[in-house]
Design goal:
By secondary structure, the protein is an alpha+beta fold. It has helices at residues 15-24, 74-84, 90-97; strands spanning 4-13, 32-38, 43-52, 100-107, 120-125, 128-129. A six-stranded antiparallel beta sheet has the order 2-3-1-4-5-6, with helices on one face.
Length: 151
């Protein structure tokens, strides 16, 4: 019983905030950036990785001021995210860093099923749920492990 979750995530916003989100996303050592497109003021970061159980597993509520203050340097913001915000939910970190987040995740054990992984889609903008939150209508670039038939 592996109980490992894999995820694909797209984050949009200021470069330092996107990298803080990346740094603060939990992983088991398999997290990597796929692409960054944009400027320091606005861009899109796409990354993938794996974590234990579920994307928000072991999270606890954030009790600080939102949005959080981040260093302007995106590398320092990434390190700060990893050091301080690892155990906050996807939705909370979207608000904390003032970014739009689209996340697809699934338990790797679901991949044995012939119908494909049971993917869960989450979409937030500055912490607010987007109208398509938890739907099967999400960007195909977020699909885990190749092909997936729409419902």
């Amino acid at each position: 019983m592996a109980n490992i979750c894999e995820y694909n995530i797209i984050v949009k916003g200021k470069r330092n905030a996107c990298y803080a989100f990346y740094g603060s996303t939990s992983n088991l050592g398999g997290k990597a950036i796929d692409s960054w497109k944009g400027t320091d003021d606005y861009g899109t970061l796409k990354f993938h990785g794996d974590c234990k159980w579920a994307i928000d597993c072991y999270c606890s509520p954030f009790d600080g001021k939102k949005p959080v203050e981040l260093p302007d340097d995106y590398r320092k913001a990434e390190a700060e995210g990893e050091d301080h915000y690892w155990y906050n939910t996807v939705q909370e970190r979207s608000e904390m860093f003032q970014v739009e987040v689209q996340c697809v995740w699934a338990d790797v054990e679901d991949y044995d099923d012939e119908s494909g992984p049971d993917m869960i889609y989450e979409h937030y903008n500055n912490g607010e749920e987007c109208p398509d939150n938890y739907s099967y209508e999400f960007p195909k670039e977020l699909v885990l492990h190749g092909e997936w038939d729409e419902c």
